[in-house]
Design a protein that fits this description.
The protein is mostly helical and 77 residues long. 95% of the residues lie in helices and 0% in strands. The protein has one domain. The chain contains 2 helices and no strands.
Length: 77
């Protein structure tokens, strides 16, 4: 069971980092979009920021669930 959970945990951690980096990049692009496209550009970028940060939270939560399952499985031996 651990042979499945450890790679799953690594993948979830990688996805969380990827979502965080994409969210930061979008955050940095927001000012430029606001200058070029006005309020519509800012709103689109803010929605994308929210989506990326929600994905990060989702992947972190799933990684925590995997860690809890691993801890529970290790204590049953």
């Amino acid at each position: 069971m651990m042979y499945i959970l450890i790679p799953l945990l690594i993948v979830l951690m990688g996805l969380a980092v990827w979502s965080l980096l994409r969210g930061i990049i979008v955050f940095l692009r927001t000012t430029r979009e606001g200058l070029e496209r006005g309020d519509a550009g800012i709103k689109d970028m803010q929605l994308l920021q929210n989506k990326m940060m929600f994905n990060r939270i989702k992947f972190q939560g799933l990684a925590i669930v995997v860690v809890v399952v691993m801890l529970a499985a290790s204590h049953t031996k």
